[in-house]
TrEMBL record:
<feature type="domain" description="ABC transporter">
    <location>
        <begin position="13"/>
        <end position="243"/>
    </location>
</feature>
<dbReference type="GO" id="GO:0005524">
    <property type="term" value="F:ATP binding"/>
</dbReference>
<dbReference type="InterPro" id="IPR005894">
    <property type="entry name" value="DrrA"/>
</dbReference>
<keyword id="KW-0472">Membrane</keyword>
<dbReference type="InterPro" id="IPR050763">
    <property type="entry name" value="ABC_transporter_ATP-binding"/>
</dbReference>
<keyword id="KW-1278">Translocase</keyword>
<keyword id="KW-0813">Transport</keyword>
<keyword id="KW-0547">Nucleotide-binding</keyword>
<keyword id="KW-1003">Cell membrane</keyword>
<keyword id="KW-0067">ATP-binding</keyword>
<keyword id="KW-0046">Antibiotic resistance</keyword>
<dbReference type="InterPro" id="IPR017871">
    <property type="entry name" value="ABC_transporter-like_CS"/>
</dbReference>
<feature type="region of interest" description="Disordered">
    <location>
        <begin position="323"/>
        <end position="346"/>
    </location>
</feature>
<dbReference type="InterPro" id="IPR027417">
    <property type="entry name" value="P-loop_NTPase"/>
</dbReference>
<dbReference type="InterPro" id="IPR003439">
    <property type="entry name" value="ABC_transporter-like_ATP-bd"/>
</dbReference>
<dbReference type="InterPro" id="IPR003593">
    <property type="entry name" value="AAA+_ATPase"/>
</dbReference>
<dbReference type="Pfam" id="PF00005">
    <property type="entry name" value="ABC_tran"/>
</dbReference>
Length: 346
């Protein structure tokens, strides 16, 4: 019955007012989430935002102190077994045995989950190859690099294709190449029908992979929507121009200010300008219209534009606009959360 609820709404996860407190610290402070099935849903937030705590409640590893959460229509507290049968989790916790080899880990998992010796060996080999771990397969996992370790973790968590996979910061600390490999894996997993809830501190990661994103900060959802919606919430976009003649830049600047009703930045390159378009009626069409009108005016004024692009603001700008501080780890000299926690304790 509850299972049908999940299916009929097409939601893999639905939470309402979800709360987890540790003493006076409200690590998760009333989170409402609706995660459509069959997509990657990004949960973006800085250190200590409450991402892991939220994931642990959804994966039935931690009991909520308030609110409700359903996974495919099953209550995470009252129907924890049903939830467990459909989810898998990897990320900031150990899931594989360090002393076993890559192959041994996957074969063991296959055997533990009821597969024959032969089927387990086959599946292990298949996954190790797909994850680029064939050479590392006979080595103990404790000797793996960070990127290899992350890949074997994910391989272990999708050995039995779960309906919902939690990936808790799957690429934190990885080099760009390893991150790209993990991203490819995530895309492949979703293409096979699994829903992925991905937590990340990296805006570009959420941007690359997720259909929808929730930005969380200090236990609360501070923004939610598609990437486009989030980006347009801070402005309609930015027009980048490169002129043929540097001498025309002051004229171009004046003209753009008027035509776009926007702040115009002169870039270090003497030929380049950027204009940030304000959120008039809040949709991208308006931005594109304004930009093309501005281009026409430049042409009429005899200003030659060699290069032009209209881009949406980055998720970094979104986070900055929402929180007044950068999202990038280590981007803040002092951690404003410390103050917040002290206030909560007082
Ligand atoms: N077991 C625990 N006991 C006490 N406090 C905890 C516990 N787990 C988490 N917290 C606190 O809850 C808050 C949220 O932590 P959480 O691990 O969920 O953040 P996060 O978003 O996953 O951060 P990170 O990006 O660093 O992994 C933090 O203030 C953290 O110190
Ligand atoms: Mg975490």
């Amino acid at each position: 019955m509850s299972n049908q609820t999940g299916r009929s709404t097409g939601l893999a996860i639905e939470t309402a007012g979800l709360v987890k407190t540790f003493g006076a610290n409200r690590a998760v402070d009333g989170i409402d989430l609706s995660v459509p099935a069959g997509t990657v849903y990004g949960v973006l937030g800085p250190n200590g935002a409450g991402k892991t705590t939220a994931v642990k409640m959804l994966a039935t590893l931690l009991r909520p102190d308030g609110g409700e959460a359903h996974v495919f229509g099953h209550d995470v507290v009252r129907e924890a077994d049903a939830v467990r049968s459909r989810v898998s989790l990897t990320g900031q916790y150990a899931s594989v045995d360090e002393d076993l080899t890559g192959t041994e880990n996957l074969v063991l998992l296959g055997r533990l989950t009821g597969h024959s010796k032969r089927a387990s060996a086959q599946r292990a080999e298949q996954l190790l190859e797909a994850f680029g771990l064939t050479d590392a397969a006979p080595r103990q996992v404790k000797n793996y690099s960070g990127g290899m370790r992350r890949r074997i973790d994910i391989a272990a968590s999708i050995l039995n294709t779960p309906d919902l996979l939690f990936l808790d910061e799957p690429t934190t600390g990885l080099d760009p190449r390893s991150r790209n490999q993990v991203w490819d894996i995530v895309r492949a997993v979703v293409a096979q029908g699994t829903t992925v809830l991905l937590t990340t501190q990296y805006l570009d990661e959420a941007d690359q992979l997720s259909a929808r994103i929730a930005v969380i900060d200090q236990g609360k959802v501070i923004a939610e929507g598609t990437k486009g919606e989030l980006k347009s919430s801070v402005g309609a976009g930015a027009v980048h121009l490169r002129l043929r003649d540097a001498e025309q830049r002051p004229d171009a600047e004046e003209l753009l200010k008027g035509a776009l009703d926007a702040q115009v930045l002169l870039e270090a390159d003497p030929l380049a300008l950027t204009a940030r378009i304000a959120n008039g009626d809040g949709n991208g069409t308006a931005a594109a219209e304004k930009a093309s009108r501005a281009l026409a005016e430049l042409a009429r004024a005899g200003i030659t534009v060699d290069n032009f692009s209209l881009g949406q603001p980055s998720l970094d700008e979104v986070f900055l606009a929402l929180t007044d501080r950068p999202a990038t780890p280590g981007g803040t000299p002092t951690d404003p959360r410390d103050d917040a926690q002290e206030e909560a304790l007082a």
